[in-house]
Design brief:
Blueprint: H1 3-16, E1 18-28, E2 31-41, E3 44-48, H2 56-71, E4 81-83, E5 86-88, H3 93-105, E6 111-115, H4 120-138, E7 144-148, H5 155-165, E8 170-174, H6 180-187, E9 194-196, H7 198-201, E10 217-220, H8 222-225, H9 228-238, E11 242-244, H10 251-263, E12 294-296, H11 298-302, H12 309-318, H13 321-335
Parallel strand pairs: 5-6, 6-7, 7-8, 8-9, 9-10, 10-11
Antiparallel strand pairs: 1-2, 2-3, 4-12
Length: 339
């Protein structure tokens, strides 16, 4: 692309850009609201919503994903729908129990991911609550439990925690430690499968991470990796099974993950795309949430999950003028780092 064409495209993106703010149902990743920018191109809408702690370089991957959604094409879907897990944040055991019941009965999910912290007794109580619900509702051992640590444990903490929590049947533990070296060390001392997330998406070159040496599963979040095509290329190089997951996206952003999961040659695990349930507000008329434990891929081939004007206007009105300007500036800064 020439410099003139590049400048013209940026101008078009900024002209259609709509900063938004959406309330969440609880606190996730330290957030009670989700902010970002939506913009429209000839292919549909893209979502640029990197978290505040992402550098401009890493935010550029998110922008590349949004540009692919709004100006590019996605590969054809190989399946009509994708299985998804429910997700439960760090709450007490009683609330965890209630959310697990809703996940199974209302959403039809057979896999539940739980965010866990440093307190072993609290983790044990919450995971036991989920196991109890799954066994009662689905049959003993049928439902699956994943736990996500977000790199919060040391190796010694992880060993202690997992030797206790393994009794509940853990499908895998997601990013228990921060570094690849720690994951490799931990993997040699426990039987619980390990999934890598941050080790991949925060890497300078995710496709060059030797995931097979430190983990059994790769969690790939397409909006953070540059979009659908880029994620599929990374998945092909990793030599481990992958789980496609969201990044606390609105329903528009979830379309990227859904398109990726639908296009993967193999999909051995439930996807982490059930995060639409974490939103108290959305920009679409009908949020992308699981039904019978699955999300249909038909929407990405019809309207590519376009926002509803009334909801979009409301989401735009909630963001302060200062933050709206900040998001416009951030998009422009990320643009300079696009490949």
């Amino acid at each position: 692309m020439t410099r003139t064409a590049d400048a013209r495209l940026l101008a078009d993106v900024l002209a259609s850009a709509i900063p938004f703010r959406l309330a969440l149902t609880g606190t996730f990743r330290g957030l009670q609201h989700r902010e970002g920018v939506l913009f429209e191109g000839p292919s549909g809408w893209g979502e640029f919503a990197p978290f505040d702690d992402y550098s401009d370089e890493r935010a550029a991957r998110w922008l590349a994903s949004a540009l692919e959604a709004s100006y590019g094409t996605w590969p054809a879907a190989l399946r009509d729908d994708v299985p998804v897990n429910a997700i439960i944040g760090q709450v007490d055991a009683q609330h965890t129990h209630e959310l697990a019941v809703a996940a199974v009965r209302d959403l039809g999910c057979h896999t539940i991911k739980i965010k866990v912290g440093a307190d072993l007794s609290s983790n044990e109580a919450c995971i036991a609550a989920v196991r109890g619900v799954l066994d009662e509702e689905l049959g003993v051992g049928v439902g699956k439990i994943r736990i996500d640590v977000n790199a919060g444990w040391s190796v010694s903490q992880a060993i202690e925690q997992l030797r206790t929590l393994a009794q509940f049947g853990i499908e895998y533990v997601e990013q228990p430690c921060a570094t690849i070296a720690e994951l490799r060390e931990l993997r040699s001392q426990i039987d619980v499968p390990i999934a890598a997330d941050e080790s991949i998406r925060l890497a300078d070159d995710p496709s060059r991470i030797a995931v097979a040496e430190c983990a059994d599963v790769a969690v790939l979040k397409p909006t953070t990796l540059g979009g659908v095509e880029r994620t599929l290329a990374i998945a092909e190089k990793l030599n481990v099974p992958v789980v496609i997951s969201g990044s606390l996206d609105s329903s528009v952003g979830l379309g990227v993950g859904l398109a990726t999961a639908a296009a993967l040659p193999e999909l051995p695990f439930a996807c982490g795309l059930g995060t639409g349930t974490l939103f108290a507000q959305d920009v679409v008329a009908h949020s992308v949430v699981p039904a019978k434990g699955r999300i249909t891929s038909a929407r990405i081939s019809t309207d590519r999950i376009n926002p509803d004007r009334m909801n979009l206007d409301a989401a735009a009105a909630r963001i302060s003028p200062m933050r709206a300007a900040w998001w416009q500036d951030r998009l422009t800064a990320a643009w300079t780092h696009l490949p």
